[in-house]
């Protein structure tokens, strides 16, 4: 049950935000997507934490070189964010770009959830198919 919910949120996080246009926000084509992405990641995170507590086999492999490199890169971004000219700009960026250390932290969390929950080749094929369908629709639009 928790596995299906977590996978569902991972796929929803991939499929839904590209179609969001928040007309009430200052940058409607960027801000809404970023905020929805963060919200979906946090919701998925709740299910993921429950899943890895209940079933330890879904914990990420922190001995993997790619995982170590990604976490070291995030640590480097955090350090340079504190040492930068504008700490708030480093961490939160601006609405126009929806980037920064905080956003990259959400991408790292999404990466960790993906590699720990999507275990089979079929899961990754479904993920790639979802990505390609969304990309095709967006490019057609």
Average of pLDDT: 93
Write down how many β-strands occur, each being a DSSP E stretch of 2 or more residues: 0
Low-confidence stretches: none
SSE pattern, N- to C-terminal: HHHHHH
Give the DSSP E fraction (strand runs of 2 or more residues): under 5%
The largest sheet is: none
Radius of gyration: 16 Å
Indicate the percent of residues in helices. Answer: over 70%
Q: From the helix content, strand content and strand pairing, which structural class follows? A: mainly alpha
Number of helices: 6
* Outline: globular
- Taking the alpha carbons of the first and last residues, their distance comes to 35 Å
List the main descriptive attributes of the protein structure presented here.
mainly alpha, globular, 141 residues
Overall description:
It is a single chain. This protein has 141 residues and is mostly helical. The chain is 71% helix and 0% strand. The protein is built from 6 helices and no strands. Helix 1 crosses helix 5 and helix 2 crosses helix 5 (101-117). The longest helix has 24 residues, at 31-54. It is globular, with a radius of gyration of 16 Å. The model has no long low-confidence stretch (mean pLDDT 93).
């Amino acid at each position: 049950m928790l596995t299906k919910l977590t996978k569902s949120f991972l796929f929803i996080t991939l499929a839904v935000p590209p179609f969001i246009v928040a007309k009430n926000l200052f940058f409607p084509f960027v801000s809404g997507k970023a905020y929805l992405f963060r919200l979906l990641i946090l919701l998925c995170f709740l299910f993921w934490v429950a899943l890895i507590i209940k079933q330890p086999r879904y914990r990420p492999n922190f001995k993997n070189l790619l995982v170590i490199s990604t976490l070291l890169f995030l640590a480097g971004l955090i350090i340079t964010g504190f040492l930068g000219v504008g700490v708030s700009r480093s961490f939160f960026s601006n609405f126009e770009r929806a980037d920064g250390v905080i956003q990259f932290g959400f991408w790292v969390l999404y990466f960790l959830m993906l590699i720990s929950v999507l275990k089979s080749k079929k899961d990754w094929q479904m993920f790639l198919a979802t990505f390609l369908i969304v990309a095709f629709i967006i490019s057609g639009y």
